[in-house]
C-alpha cells in the first residue's frame, strides 16, 4: 500500500492533545498538520484534521500550527506557552512509602500528576492529595504505598532550563571516580560515601564526613563549558545549623570561588536547603568542582540533587540559545482512547501575536516523525 489512505470520522469523534513524556498537558480544539511534499508524489499537506485520519507508509517531516484562541484548559494554555518560551519547565520528584508530605525543591505553579511508582495508579487532587502553593508542599491524604509516588509539576524558576552537566548528581549510581573527597592541609580522614538514611529524593544522598576546615566533596570529571557564559550551580544540602560552606570551580589557571545566590553558604536548621551559585568561566574546560566546608570545627553534611547548567535569562528560547521544549501532538478517539495519529517530537519555531479584538496568538512549529492508524 502506498500513499495516504483516507477514512472518515465524525466531527466530535476525535480529541486533540499535547503530550510530553507520556503525560497529557492540555487539550486542543483545533490543530493543522502539513507534511513535506517531497516525501509523497504530489503531496500538498493534509491541512485541518477535523474529521479525517491518514494512514501513511513513510515517516514524513512536517509542520503544525495551533491557534491560541483554541487552546483548551482552565488557564487557556498559558502554562504550555510558558513551557515553549522557557519561562517554565517540568520537574519530577518522588515521595517515599508512608510519607505524609512532599515539599518540592522548586516553587509549584501546577501539579501535573501524582502517580504510584509500582502500580502506575494516578492519584486525584483533593481526594488523595492537596497542594499548598505558598509553601510548595503536597500533603498526601492517603497512605503512600510501597515504592512511593512520582510527582510531576510545573515551576517558573527559570534558572534550570539547560541539561544537567553533572554526572550522578543524585548519587544513585556508584561514586567510582566521579565523586570523591577534597582534603586540605594535613587532613587525612575526610571521606565521602553514599548515604540512604539522609537522602532527599531517590535512594541515596552523598554523606561528606569533613574533619578539617576547608575540606569537602570533590567532583572530578572535566566539564566542557562556553567561556564568557554564566553558569548556575545548584544542590540540596543539610547538616548542623552552625555549618558554613562555599562552592568553587577549577580550570587550568586557578581555583575560584563561585558567587552565592541569596543566602547560599550558611545552613539554618537541620532540614534540606537549596543552595545556588553562579560563575563565568574564562576557559573552555572546568577540571573539577568543590563544595568546601569552611566551619572551624566541621561536621558531617549531606548533599543531593546536584545540578550545573546555563544561567537562564528571560530571553525567548526560540532565539536558538536554549534547547526547545519538545512534545507530541496526538489525536485519539473519544469513545475508546485509541490513538489515531501522533506527530512526534514537535518543537515551536514561531509565536505570532495579533492584538486588538479579538486577541489571538498562533503557535507554529515542526515535527520529526509521524504515526497513523
Any descriptors?
373 residues, mainly beta, Pnp Oxidase, Chain A, Jelly Rolls, 3 domains, nine-stranded antiparallel sheet, 1 helix, 30 strands, globular
Q: What is CATH's topology name of the largest domain?
A: Jelly Rolls
Shape: globular
- Rg over CA atoms, rounded to whole Å, is 24 Å
Give the low-pLDDT segments: 1-6, 37-60, 314-321
Helix content: under 10%
The N- to C-terminal Cα distance equals 14 Å
Overall number of structural domains:
3
The number of helices is: 1
Describe the main β-sheet briefly. Answer: 9 strands, antiparallel
How much is the average pLDDT? 80
Q: What is the architecture of the largest domain at the second tier of CATH?
A: Sandwich
Give the CATH class of the largest domain. Mainly Beta
Q: Strand percentage, roughly?
A: 35-45%
Fourth CATH level, the homologous superfamily of the largest domain = Galactose-binding domain-like
Topology, number of strands: 30
Structural class: mainly beta
Structure commentary:
- This protein is an all-beta fold.
- It has three domains: 5-82 and 325-372, Roll (Pnp Oxidase, Chain A); 89-155, no CATH class; 179-310, Galactose-binding domain-like (Jelly Rolls).
- The protein has one helix and 30 strands.
- It has one helix at residues 78-85; strands at residues 5-8, 14-20, 23-28, 32-35, 47-48, 52-55, 62-67, 89-95, 101-103, 110-116, 129-132, 137-140, 149-155, 179-182, 191-195, 205-209, 215-219, 223-224, 231-238, 245-250, 255-257, 259-260, 273-279, 285-286, 288-293, 300-310, 326-333, 339-354, 360-367, 369-372.
- The strands form seven sheets. Strands 2, 3, 4, 5, 7, 27, 28, 29 and 30 form a nine-stranded antiparallel sheet that branches. Strands 15-16-26-19-23-22 form a six-stranded antiparallel sheet, with no helix packed on it.
- Strand 20 and strand 21 form a beta hairpin.
- It is globular and about 80 Å long.
- The two termini are 14 Å apart.
- Residues 1-6, 37-60 and 314-321 have low confidence and may be disordered.
